[in-house]
Amino acid sequence: MSRIPAVDPASATGEARQLLDAVQAQLGVTPNFIRVLANSPSALKAFLGIYQIAGEGRLEAQTRERIALAVAQENACEYCVSAHTAIGRKHGLSNEEMLANRGGGSTDERAAAAVSFAKSLMENRGDVSGAEVQAIRNAGYGDAELVEIIVHVALNALTNILGKAAQVDIDFPHVSLSELPQAA
Questions:
Q1: Domains in the chain, please, with CATH?
Q2: Which regions of the chain are under pLDDT 70?
Q3: So what's the pLDDT on residue 182?
Q4: Quick one: which of 70, 12, 71, 3 has its CA closest to 38?
Q5: pLDDT at 180
Q6: Beta carbons of 110 and 116 less than 8 angstroms apart
Q7: pLDDT tens-digit series, residues 21-38
Q8: DSSP 7
Q9: Which residues contact 163 (CB under 8 A, 6 or more apart)?
Q10: Distance (Å) of CA 46 to CA 14, 49, 110, 114
C-alpha cells in the first residue's frame, strides 16, 4: 500500500482535477504515480511540463525508454521498471533489449552508448569522464542529445525517488528487479 495516497481522479478538485483529466485524456489511463503526484498540483504540473518538453527533443522514444529502464534498475525502483517495461513494449522494445537496457547496455550499438552513459551518470552522480562524453559523441550523438540524455536521467531519477519513497502501488504488469520481463 502506498505511503502517500493516490488521489482519486473522480473526487479530485481544482487544478488537480484538471491535470488528472488531461493525463487521462492523453494516455487513456491515469497511472498511480501521477495520482500520487496530484497530492501537490504544483509538483504534478512541474513534472508534466518537463516530461512534455523532454519528449519533444531529438532522442527517439525507444532510447528514452531504454534510459528510463537503466535508471530505474540502477535505482532499484520496481514501480518504474514495471511501468517502463510496459511502455517500452508499446514502443517495440523486445524483452531481450529491455533486459540489456536494465543492465546498462543495448543490443543496438548506438543506443548502447546512450544507455551506458545514462547508467554512468547515475552511478557517478553526474561526475562522468571526458572519455565517456567522447564515447557519446563517437556514437553520433550531438550536444543537444547529450543534454537530453542528462535531462532524461534526472527526470527518471525523480520518478524513481518518488516511486520508492511513496511506495507507489504498481499498476502495470509487475516486473521484479531480478527477472526478465515476460512477453505480453
A1: 14-55 (no CATH), 61-166 (1.20.1290.10)
A2: 180-184
A3: 46
A4: 12
A5: 52
A6: no
A7: 999 999 999 999 999 999
A8: P
A9: 33, 77, 78, 79, 80
A10: 16, 5, 31, 25
Q: 143-166 and 109-123 helices cross at what angle (nearest 10)?
A: 50
Distance in angstroms (rounded) separating the CA atoms of residues 127 and 153: 13
As a whole number of angstroms, the distance between CA 153 and CA 156 comes to 5
C-alpha cell at 50: 518537463
**pTM for the model:** 0.93
Question: What is the rounded distance in angstroms from the CA atom of residue 173 to the CA atom of residue 184?
Answer: 9
In a 10 Å sphere around its CB, with 0-12 CB exposed, 13-18 middle and 19+ buried, how is residue 25 labelled?
Answer: exposed
